[in-house]
Amino acid sequence: MYKLIAIDLDMTLLDRTKNISYRNKKAIELAKEKGVKIVLCSGRILKGVMYFAKVLGLHDQVIVACNGAIVRDLKKNKDIYYVGLENEKSIEIARICKENDIYYHYYFQDTMIARRLDYSSKFYYEKNRELPKEERIDIIIDDSEQTLKSCGNLITKFVIIDKDVEKVDHVREIIEKRLSGVETTKSDTNILEVMKEGVNKKRALEFVCSYLGIDPKEIMAIGDNENDLQMIEFAGLGVAMENAIEELKKIADFVTQSYEDDGVAKAIEKFVLGETINV
């Protein structure tokens, strides 16, 4: 019996419109009723993950944000794990991005600080209009080094995006060659993420296991992209979405259907509930 399900958000739990289907919601609700812990495990900023936790009624669970840099106990309403980049690394990452004229934003606690209003920052800016004030993500447009310095070692993650995938990959190569002590991954083909070395979803789940007293063999993890690789390998049952990258499918124990076809619900039904939900 699996005691914990770790679930990625984008291209896994969320559909194309960034919503959660009825079947996915119901499967999670039924698993929770059976005493299974539900851990949303995302690269998104903390408030972004908290929003979907609220949608799912996970007020008494823990969540993983910023690709594993933050673990928040929602019941206690406090961070129980937080790992930030060394400030000198953050400054250098921003310099590399400017040298290559590429968009970036970074997460400082609950705030998104962006070079310009574009890509993810533009998405969240528009999404904020639909949300109550307390759920909105604070967005600051500021590419100054002074602001970076003022954040100290509390920046959890840089997100670097461009429509040109080769440009993103080129910037990744530069960062990896020039900087030690950082970890790079991708959450989509054109989205590069940079954290402190050792920060990933697997490390965060290791902490969660210790915190909750759960054996890794009792974990089921579901994901789709490069930033889910270590998490899928770590879990007792690693599940890849049908739309996942090939590398993830190869190491997964099971491949469920796509994020557009309730793949998360179908995996939960098969391995946790033992029954199909009627929609």
UniProtKB/TrEMBL annotation:
GO terms for molecular function: magnesium ion binding; phosphatase activity. One of its GO terms (cellular component) is cytosol. Gene3D superfamilies: 3.30.1240.10, HAD superfamily/HAD-like. CDD domains: HAD_Pase. Pfam families: Hydrolase_3 (PF08282). Keywords: Hydrolase. InterPro entries: Cof, HAD-like_sf, HAD-SF_hydro_IIB, HAD_sf. The keyword Hydrolase applies. This is Cof-like hydrolase. It comes from Caldicellulosiruptor owensensis (strain ATCC 700167 / DSM 13100 / OL). The lineage of its organism: Bacteria, Bacillati, Bacillota, Bacillota incertae sedis, Caldicellulosiruptorales.
